[in-house]
Write a structure and sequence with these properties.
Rossmann fold, 8 strands, 9 helices, alpha/beta, Guanylate Kinase phosphate binding domain
């Protein structure tokens, strides 16, 4: 049985940058999500996303096929139970980038899932990062900052681990250390190594 790690972070906290640094280390795998947005150049159906119509998406939703869904820039996204279960059957560590509601759903359906939240060094710096992007309107920035307060409050009540992204190298190292700790945690280790432990106890 594999392990689910959910990753939640306010917009601007540096989640994508940290993951970009860790991807080459093959510490975890990702599921292929379903989306209603059009494929971008170079994207392949079934590899980058499952590209579907809104009608198909809502059909899957009504059939209870999704662990979680979200709307981003007017497009629907969802994580399929079938994708999650297939990856978990390979004993892999599955990383899901989710909003608080999605992370809560993952915990409800998969109790051994572990929630990590990435935080900015301060609310002021988060505001500076978002404004510095120069890609969002003032209204959008304020909306993201308002949402950040709710996301952080959720994390205080529900996250298992926190990473403060004040210095990128340290944040990446902290993330890697947390993943290694999770794999050694009693409940996770026992669940993921049943056959191994049974062999040891039978021998002893």
């Amino acid at each position: 049985m594999g392990q689910i790690i959910t990753l939640t972070a306010p917009s601007g906290a540096g989640k994508s940058t940290i993951l970009g640094r860790l991807n080459s280390k093959k510490l975890f795998t990702f599921s292929v999500s379903v989306t209603t947005r059009a494929p971008r150049e170079g994207e392949e159906d079934g590899v980058d996303y499952y590209f579907v119509s809104e009608e198909k998406f809502h059909s899957l939703l009504s059939e209870g096929k999704f662990l979680e869904t979200a709307i981003v820039h007017g497009n629907f996204y969802g994580t399929l139970f079938s994708e999650v279960d297939q990856i978990l059957s390979t004993d892999a560590t599955l990383l899901l980038e989710l909003n608080p509601e999605g992370a809560s759903n993952a915990k409800a359906y998969y109790p051994t899932s572990v929630a990590i939240m990435i935080l900015p060094p301060s609310y002021e710096l988060l505001s500076e990062r978002l404004k510095g992007r120069a890609t969002d309107s003032v209204q959008v920035v304020q909306k993201r900052l308002s949402a950040a307060r709710g996301e952080i409050k959720w994390g205080i009540d529900n996250a298992d681990y926190f990473i403060i992204n004040a210095q990128l190298d340290q944040a990446v190292e902290d993330f890697e250390n947390i993943i290694n700790i999770i794999k050694c945690k009693h409940s996770v280790f026992v669940e993921n190594n049943k056959k191994y432990l049974e062999e040891l106890t039978n021998i002893m």
